[in-house]
Amino acid sequence: MGIAVKAAARAAGFVARKAAFAAGQGQAAEILADYLAQFGDAVLAGYMPMRTEIDPLAAMAAHPGVVGVPVIVGAGHALRFREWSPGCAMVAGEFGALVPEGGAWVVPQVVIVPLVAFDVRGYRLGYGGGFYDRTLEGLRARGPVVAVGFAFAGQEMADVPIDATDQRLDVIVTERGLRTF
């Protein structure tokens, strides 16, 4: 898929996400927490929301097991996840995302994935760095992992442009409910 096609889709996705963010988050965090409850104390990875991303923090805080957040270790690399808990010391990481100042590195079994847009096939459009695609590919090579896209319903587009390296999500959770693939 051409870079220009993905760039145009990404631009449209950002516009849709900004509008959805302005409309409010509804019951999205509760729906996410209810979905995650089935995984018990499995190691969960979430993310620290930036700008107009939907906020998973309440669902992350409700999880009974270990929770990690992504740390970018370098361009072209998979993400690593550092243990997080509400109120832990945070510092600015790459691209301004907050990351825990210290803590154990964890390997998640369930990953909450932020996104710019998604489609009915379960594909997502991210920021273009390929971090989550590399990460999911690596985690899936090691064993089962569940990729949970978390987004506003308004971020859905007809067809996300994809390449051979794009990893499909297992479920999308929005303020309107969930969809499995």
From TrEMBL:
<dbReference type="InterPro" id="IPR024185">
    <property type="entry name" value="FTHF_cligase-like_sf"/>
</dbReference>
<dbReference type="Pfam" id="PF01812">
    <property type="entry name" value="5-FTHF_cyc-lig"/>
</dbReference>
<keyword id="KW-0067">ATP-binding</keyword>
<dbReference type="GO" id="GO:0035999">
    <property type="term" value="P:tetrahydrofolate interconversion"/>
</dbReference>
<keyword id="KW-0547">Nucleotide-binding</keyword>
<protein>
    <recommendedName>
        <fullName>5-formyltetrahydrofolate cyclo-ligase</fullName>
        <ecNumber>6.3.3.2</ecNumber>
    </recommendedName>
</protein>
<dbReference type="InterPro" id="IPR002698">
    <property type="entry name" value="FTHF_cligase"/>
</dbReference>
<comment type="similarity">
    <text>Belongs to the 5-formyltetrahydrofolate cyclo-ligase family.</text>
</comment>
<dbReference type="InterPro" id="IPR037171">
    <property type="entry name" value="NagB/RpiA_transferase-like"/>
</dbReference>
<keyword id="KW-0436">Ligase</keyword>
<dbReference type="GO" id="GO:0030272">
    <property type="term" value="F:5-formyltetrahydrofolate cyclo-ligase activity"/>
</dbReference>
<keyword id="KW-0479">Metal-binding</keyword>
<dbReference type="GO" id="GO:0009396">
    <property type="term" value="P:folic acid-containing compound biosynthetic process"/>
</dbReference>
<dbReference type="GO" id="GO:0005524">
    <property type="term" value="F:ATP binding"/>
</dbReference>
<dbReference type="GO" id="GO:0046872">
    <property type="term" value="F:metal ion binding"/>
</dbReference>
<keyword id="KW-0460">Magnesium</keyword>
